[in-house]
Every structure is written in C-alpha cells, then in structure tokens.
Amino acid sequence: MRIIKKSKEINSLFNSFKKTGFVPTMGSLHKGHEYLIKKSVKENNVTFVSIFVNPKQFNNKMDLKKYPKNLKEDVKICRKCKVNYLFLPSFKEVYSWKVQSKKKTPKIKNIMEHKYRKGHFKGVIKVIEKLSNIIPASKMYLGEKDFQQIKVITDYFNINKVKTKIVKCKTVRDKNGLALSSRNKLLKKENLKKAVNIVNFIKKIKLKNIHSNLKINIIRNYLKKNDVKFDYVQNINLKQFNISKNRTINTRIFFAFYLGTVRLIDNL
Amino acid sequence: MRIIKKSKEINSLFNSFKKTGFVPTMGSLHKGHEYLIKKSVKENNVTFVSIFVNPKQFNNKMDLKKYPKNLKEDVKICRKCKVNYLFLPSFKEVYSWKVQSKKKTPKIKNIMEHKYRKGHFKGVIKVIEKLSNIIPASKMYLGEKDFQQIKVITDYFNINKVKTKIVKCKTVRDKNGLALSSRNKLLKKENLKKAVNIVNFIKKIKLKNIHSNLKINIIRNYLKKNDVKFDYVQNINLKQFNISKNRTINTRIFFAFYLGTVRLIDNL
Question: How much is the pTM?
C-alpha cells in the first residue's frame, strides 16, 4: 500500500494506468524488434507483443512460405524484455474478430511498396484493423525500416480516429550498417556481404553534395553493374511523401532490391 | 509473461486495466468501511481509500472537534484490506485543487439531513467535487446508512456527467442491530444500550402491518416518552425520494436522534 498526500501524484497515477504499449510483429524477432519492445516496456506499464505472420500481406506465396519462424527463441526474447502479454493468435482468431463500425481505407500513393507489392498494404491494413481493435493500446511501436507502412497505418488511424498513438522508432542496424530484418536470416553468406556493400554504397552517395537526381542515377547504375535486381531507388520527400526531384533537407533515399530470391528494403 | 491465444481474453484484460475503485471516508474506520473497501478490492484492480475529515460538511463546530480520529488503526485496516493507495490530504491539498469546468449543483429536497443540518450537503458536494476529480475512479463505494448522501452524490454525478459509477452498499450493523458509525465510539455505555433499544423498537414497528403514518406516530411517541431528542422520523419513498403518507413497498423509515450530544442517523 502506498500512502499519498499530494493530489498531483494521484493524477499521474491515473495517467500511468492507461499506459499500454503494443508491438505487432511477424515473429523471428531480432534486435530491431527488441528495441521496439524495450522502448514500449520503458514507456508503458503494460506491454503487448503479437506474433502473427499475416498471409494477407504477402503478395508472393514463396515469400510467405519461407518467411523465417523461430517461436521458441521469440518467447525467450519477450520474456527477457519483460513483455507482459504475448499474443499468439491463429489465423481464424484474428480474422474472425468483428471490428465495430465500418472503417475507411486511406489513399496510398502508388509508389514504392504499394507499386511493387500489389495488395501488400491492403493486407497490412486488414491485419492492423483487427489487431489494433483486439489490443487497443495507448501506443503502437513501429520501426522506420518499414517507413511507408508507418505512413499507411498512421493515415488509417487518423481517418478512423483510432486512439492508439504510433511511435516511430529508428531502424536498428548490424555493425556493418545493414538494417536488421527477419529476412536477413535467409541470405547466403556471400549475399549478406553484397547487401552490406550496397547499403554502404548508398550511404556514401547519399552524403555527397550533388543533385539528388544524380545520386539516384549513380545508385541505380551501381546496382545494374553488379547485377542486383531492384524494384526502386527513389528520393522521397518525407513531408509530402512523394518522389522529390530536388534536394531538400527532409528527404530520404528509399530502395528495394533482391539478392537471390530474398527482397530487402531500407531507407537512408 | 502471459501467453494469450484468444482475442477475447485481451478484451477483458483491457476492461480490467480501467477498473479503479474509490472509498472516500472521514477515517476512524469500522467494519462498515471495511465492507466497502473489501468490495472495492474484490471488484477492481486498484483501490483508493481517502481519509479526510471535511470541515465544510459539519454544521456544528463541536461535532467536528470531537469527531473521532484514529489514523494509526486506519492505516492498519487499509493495509489488511489490501488497499493500493491511501490518500491522506491536507485541507489545502483538497481545496486548492482546481476542478476544470463549472459544475452544476443538484436540487436537494428540504427533508431529513438537508433540513436539519444546514449547509451539510453543500459541504459534501464541495468535497466530492474535489475528491472525484482528484481520484477519477471507475466506481465509488458508499454506504446506505447515509442514504440521502448517496442520493445527492448520484444526482451530482448525473447532472455533471461524472463517469464514476456509485456502488450503494448495505449498512453494516453490530450484533445488536445498531448501524456502525464512527460516532458510536463517542457514546457512553448506557447510551449505546439506549441506541440499540431505539433501533430495535423501530425495526419491530416497521414490520407491523399497520398504516405507515401510525408507525411514525408510535415511534415518535416512544422517543418522546424516553426523553430522546430527535430531528426527524419519517417514512420515505425511495423512488421519488419524498415523505410517503401511504404504505408502499418501496419505502424506508429514516430517523435522526440524539443521545447526549451524539447525533445518530439510520434507515430501516
């Protein structure tokens, strides 16, 4: 029992009761997920993590089939990070959940992932609609590697007045600069090295004091020269969220490329 | 960490996060308070108890001055009952708290406590306005001995759209049938016996199959004959909350009487 003499203390207590954090994942947890989870545990008094490989967001059946799974290790990581509730639903559990009131779908610009992974965000919105309703947390933690996904979910929450706040978290990278991703586990050693080289090349070009169009061309040529298939390399204005032809401060280079059958995305 | 596979379980979890109970008291806790506290602890996941002798609700200075205090024992009882937070504010702490938006005052019928304790409910409303704002619990637990007080606070909450629900709790009595009250501690042994006799007499008359007006007259005459000063003995319709001249099912006999300088109230 805690004895309180100051009203203000009670006020902050009531605020803390409401603090629930939610980290939705597809499992195969890495240090990037750990970062999100630890941030949530720190900022809230209850943290939920969900592990659910959402088939509806995979445009490619093989990609879904080979998506890495490691539940035993995932549970260990969640326990270590002091997660309060780990949600491991079945497909039926998620999709049979009835969301009250019809939700609006945000308009998504036909660039990047939306252009190259047909139906991907439709699937993302579907699962987020269900999960955010099942777990109506105060905050949802998402990683900036999937930047366009954050944009789509934020828009969805805004137009549907979902009260959960989105906490954008920085991309966690390995010591070589490669963004952590569950799909990295699928890379052969030589391709892992290649991925690191690509990201570091783009980082180097990004820092050059030249026109952004020129940067994009240099990167595309580098990928072509090295026989690396890519969906896009684009300079994106983060405010308007469209392709930026001019150098501005608020831009990032977004890219998606293939090494073997593994598709990686990142932004710098 | 708890692993959950069913969405419904999470739903009930979120409901439980919001469950906060509040038992406002003036201290000198007895088994009646304990009943309220235990009910709150059982029904909520966090229970607040406040101990604050509100001078503004005392119309009689002597009554305030001699109001029993027993903080050490109160803390023990709260600990025993597994209270989570015990709020022990100073006068300044309560009355300097700024309640946002002006609150409406409910109309109170000029009967019983409102008639005989001038300004009492004005003081009750003032302290409840502050306390319910400092501790915006989901439920507030109040005892039916102070029946009119429950009515006033319920009306106040309704017209001001205070979200806290009021849980009316039965009056706890000692083995002789006397309603527990902090003021009982101020009674001399002979008066305690007298109080028990009065309550049992009223109980006996209440059960008789005679017109309610006749019951009231019999009780008043009994009190007069025994030299017991009283403010009122009245048959009150609980639905309309007014003096009922006819026998109906939904009535109680409300009474306030004095033994020495101690004023006791009850309803049967």
Answer: 0.70
